[in-house]
Amino acid sequence: MKSKLPLKQRQWYKLDNAAKAFPGQNSSSWSNVFRLSATLTEKIDPDLLQEALEKTMPRFPCFDVRMRNGFFWHYLEKNPNGAPPVMPDIGNPCLRVKWKENNGYLIKIYYYENRISAEFYHAVTDGYGASRFFMTLLAVYLRLTGKEIPNGESVFDINEKPHEEESEDAYLKYSNSKAKGKRFYKFTYHYKGKRLPKHRLCVTTGYMPVSALKEKAHEYGVTITEYLAAVLLWVMYNMQEEEENNKEKHVGVQIPVNVRNFYKSETLRNFMLCYSFQIDPKMGEYTFSEIVKQLSLYLRYINNEKELQAMMHGNAGIEKNPIMRILPSFLKDFGISMVYKVAGEKATSALITNVGIIKTPAEMTPYIEKLTLVTGPGMLMGAKCGAVSFDGTLALTVSNIFEENKIQRDIFTTLVKFGIPVKIESNRHAIMGGDR
């Protein structure tokens, strides 16, 4: 939405192209919430964290919002309730957002011992925007504890006026294609286990050296993200092969990509698209090398501006469909909810989103022990994975909706077999014990 008002006076935003579908998907089993966490070297002071949040929020006006129900579309409105309250952490991350909780905010800030976590509703931002907000919050907090932390890299200057471009709908700005990208894929294999109760999520993180991953990826001539996506595909492929009633369904992996790599947008709202790649076991047996090669070739073929333009145009279907446009928002939500319940995750067996390397000023790095990215629960997928790299370590977090730990165990044992050292931590004990 173009606004004639200065940014500091703007009172509302249209949902961006990606965000329009999220209110209709907001359920106890599919929250579209993700979490960034940082473990610091010192115990967290909640009062200072609250003060840091209050100092940080004005620099990020597109986060200082609440969800409102328009007649035709939901929209984001400036939240008049001050900063959200910081809260003691919970055992089950990425719970669904309820519009009237948390002072109406769509972000939540938690603390536990020496860990700070921030959860973001995807209608507000993507991993890139969230990482800038989160790292700025950490820097402001560390300053309040007496540390001298400069601005730079992913740390924004909170005394600087927000840039108008940071709140723009980049999809609307850059999409100009008349073509539509491929929208439908074959339904894929999914592991079937005993599902955890709703609002419970088993989170397992493996920490591994970026150097070891890079060396292994370079052996195949691929990126780290491509290599990890191939590992997920290989694991899911073998899991299906091991099943007695193997129906040889397609096996697929979904990879969100940051479109800012093509367009130098400053937006802190959503600006990502999802690539999907599948293999067909009925075509014969696959080796890991074949999977890596085919996935990499496919991504190199599709990862170009024209394909991205077609995907953006296709994603605008909800917004531009003449029938959808005249439906009231509650009917749009119902329709979107039904579509995603029927087909939302059936075309992919696993997902990996990698926000890449998070860089901070050198003065800040010694006070952060580790960073993690947790994706919200899936409806069918037990392998929704988030990756983030910091100070030479990549943290790969598997969000699993099943009581069994086979998926995360197979992923990390496969990496170890391939020569990648992995250190594991999990909330599995707390989840199985019922802690909140």
What does it look like?
With 436 residues, the protein is of the alpha+beta class. Helices cover 31% and strands 22% of the residues. The chain is built from 13 helices and 15 strands. It has helices at residues 22-25, 46-56, 127-144, 170-174, 210-220, 224-242, 288-302, 305-315, 317-320, 322-326, 329-343, 406-417, 428-433, and strands at residues 12-14, 33-40, 65-69, 74-78, 86-88, 107-112, 115-121, 202-209, 251-258, 272-279, 350-357, 368-374, 384-390, 393-400, 423-426. The strands form 3 sheets. A 7-stranded mixed beta sheet has the order 10-9-11-13-14-8-15, sandwiched between helices. Strands 5-6-7-2-12 form a 5-stranded mixed beta sheet, with helices on one face. Strands 1-4-3 form a 3-stranded antiparallel beta sheet, with no helix packed on it. A hairpin with a 2-residue loop joins strand 6 (107-112) and strand 7. Helix 2 (46-56) packs across helix 3 and helix 6 (224-242) crosses helix 12 (406-417). The longest helix has 19 residues, at 224-242. The protein is globular, with a radius of gyration of 21 Å. The protein starts with 11 loop residues before the first strand and ends with a helix. Residues 1-9 have low confidence and may be disordered.
